[in-house]
Amino acid sequence: MTDAIAAERATRRPVRSGSVEYEGAEAEDGMIGSARDFTADFLAGPKATEYAPVPRRCVDLARLVVSEMVTNAVRHAPGPCRLLLELFEDTLEISVFDRAEASPVPRGHDPGRIGQHGVEILIAVCESVSVEPLPSGKRVRARLRLA
Questions:
Q1: What is the DSSP letter of 102?
Q2: What gap in Å lies between CA 93 and CA 13, rounded to an integer?
Q3: What is the pLDDT of residue 119?
Q4: How far is 10 from 60, CA to CA, in rounded Å?
Q5: CA angle, 79 as apex, 134 and 64 as ends, to 5°?
Q6: I need a surface site. Which of 1, 32, 64, 82 has the fewest CB within 10 A?
């Protein structure tokens, strides 16, 4: 799956991209809320609205996806984490880079379980979700359609 994404990305360039890195105490003190706000601001930016305004529902879904991805990095990965947003005409690619080598794993359906539904949420609302190993950790990428 990673090869298909890489091949597709070689022919497509984002209209706009932005990233933010969180380290140390910052990661524990408001990072998730900050990442959600960064996402909303990014989608309200000038290039984001050049084609058509991003629907509020899509902004809310993007904030949810970012929240789940960043929460997973904060809880399960040591050290800093980076959020990268790449806007294409009709999709938003959300990537979170962290230092953990283990991939997130979806758990079976359990309505009685409190928490630990992040990967299930990503799979339910995103067009695709992939994990790419890196020399010092991994990149989790989710593609969200903005139409």
A1: S
A2: 11
A3: 82
A4: 29
A5: 80
A6: 1
Q: Which of 59, 62, 120 is nearest to 95 (CA)?
A: 62
CA distance 60 to 40: 8
Report d(CA 57, CA 122) in Å as an integer: 15
Structure tokens at 51: 């084609």
Query: Tokens representing 52?
Result: 């058509």
- Tokens (6 digits) for 109: 């359906």
Tokens at 135, concatenated = 């020399």
Mean pLDDT of the chain: 83
Angle at which helix 56-76 crosses helix 118-125, to 10 degrees, equals 150
Structure tokens at 56: 């509020």
Q: Euclidean distance between the first and final Cα of the chain, in Å?
A: 23
Q: What are phi and psi of 144, to 5 degrees?
A: -120, 125
Mean pLDDT of 115-139: 87
d(CA 104, CA 59): 24
pLDDT digits 0-9 by tens, 69-107:
998 888 888 888 999 999 998 899 999 999 988 776 666
